Amino acid sequence: MNNSEIEVSSVSAEVGKVTEKISCDTMEGEELRISFNGKNIMDALKVIDSETIKIRFTGAMSPFTVQPTDHDQMLHLFSPVRTY
């Protein structure tokens, strides 16, 4: 993707395949393809009391973090899922 947009896709038996493009303020690093449990991310986003978040990836099979941008009091750590 480009520096202002990321692509998120989901595949489920009930819905099928869904793809969304989401705008972002900044993006650094190489293109990354990673799989994770979307329900866990949704649960974290429900409790984050910020309009914007920061997601930090270190690799396709490494844990990543989700954190609000306006304070450092909350940090969520997620592990990716192996899909191949």
Overview of this structure, please?
There is one protein chain. By secondary structure, the chain is mainly β. It contains one helix and five strands; from the N terminus they run E-E-H-E-E-E. The longest helix has 10 residues, at 38-47. It is globular, with a radius of gyration of 13 Å. The two termini are 23 Å apart. The mean pLDDT is 89.
Properties at a glance:
84 residues; mainly beta; 3-stranded antiparallel sheet; two-stranded antiparallel sheet; 33% strand
Rg from alpha-carbon coordinates? 13 Å
So what's the overall shape? Answer: globular
Oligomer: single chain
Order of helices and strands: EEHEEE
Kindly state the mean pLDDT as a whole number? 89
Give a quick account of the main beta sheet: strands, pairing sense, barrel closure: 3 strands, antiparallel
Low-confidence stretches: none
Number of strands: 5
Class inferred from helices and paired strands:
mainly beta
Please report the distance between the alpha carbons of the first and last residues. 23 Å
Strand order of the largest sheet: 3-4-5
Strand content: 25-35%
Helix content: 10-25%
Count of DSSP H/I helices = 1
Summary, kept brief:
The chain contains one helix and five strands; from the N terminus they run ββαβββ. By secondary structure, the protein is mostly beta strands.
Q: What is the strand and helix layout of this fold?
A:
Elements: E1 5-12, E2 16-23, H1 38-47, E3 53-56, E4 64-68, E5 76-78
Antiparallel strand pairs: 1-2, 3-4, 4-5
